[in-house]
Specification:
The complex is a heterodimer. Chain A is mainly β. Chain A has no helices and 13 strands. Classes of the chains: A mainly beta, B mainly beta.
């Protein structure tokens, strides 16, 4: 199974400041035949289901604010919130759909400092 | 609008069975992979199973293999999860989710239901 390890487990960022979440995969999720990383990021607010933010590691889902961006390839990925807003307080999960079983990171809780 | 609504959760004794349903609307159901994902309250996400557009390709997490069965009825726009031999560790909120990209088990899951709660306890 592919293990996804997120860091940090939690972070507190001032409004308007940058938040960075990392996710390291135990093996590459880059599919060589199409050069795509089978990797996504989700946001989950309390009492709500997860919301897809980023897929293919860096493609922003429709309607997601452009302050959210994804980067990385292979085994190391980053989700960046360029200017944290109050509504971004949530838990963020990384996810790989490269191989069965699909797996998720343990989550990173983002709060306002 | 695009929507998934789960039902069928409840309290069941260890060893018992439940059948979860997920009713879809607002999109061409038969064009998308569908997934069950569960979450213990306050904990992370665990993928349970997915099913291809025609139902021919099905995969399960090892933790549920042999006990759970995923199925779909494209005529009724519905997804199901038959859960047998339930254990305390199956207690969770169960979400159904839609694949982001037509016909492919890729691109993440772009639509999720609100979930249905399964509690396994005597």
């Amino acid at each position: 199974d592919i293990v996804l390890t997120q860091s940090p487990d939690s972070l507190a960022v001032s409004l308007g400041e940058r938040a960075t979440i990392n996710c390291k995969s135990s093996q590459s999720v880059l599919y060589s035949s199409n050069n795509k990383n089978y990797f996504a990021w989700y946001q989950q607010k309390p009492g709500q289901p997860p919301k897809l933010l980023i897929y293919w590691a860096s493609t922003r889902e429709s309607g997601v604010p452009d302050r959210f961006s994804g980067s990385g390839s292979g085994t190391d990925f980053t989700l960046t919130i360029s200017s944290l807003q109050a509504e971004d307080v949530a838990i963020y999960y990384c996810h790989q759909y490269y191989s069965i079983p699909w797996t998720f990171g343990q989550g990173t809780k983002v709060e306002i400092k | 609008q695009v929507q998934l609504v789960e039902s069928g959760g409840g309290l069941v004794e260890p060893g018992g069975s439940l059948r979860l349903s997920c009713a879809a609307s607002g999109f061409t159901f038969s064009d998308y992979y569908l997934t069950w994902i569960r979450q213990v309250p306050g904990k992370g996400l665990e993928w349970v199973s997915y099913i291809s557009v025609s139902g021919t390709n099905i995969y399960y997490a090892d933790s549920v293999k042999g006990r759970f069965t995923i199925s779909r009825d494209n005529a009724r726009n519905s997804l199901y999860l038959q859960m047998n031999s339930l254990r305390a560790e199956d207690t969770a909120l169960y979400y159904c989710a839609k694949g982001n990209i037509a016909s492919l088990p890729s691109g993440g899951m772009d639509v999720w239901g609100q979930g249905t709660t399964v509690t396994v306890s005597s």
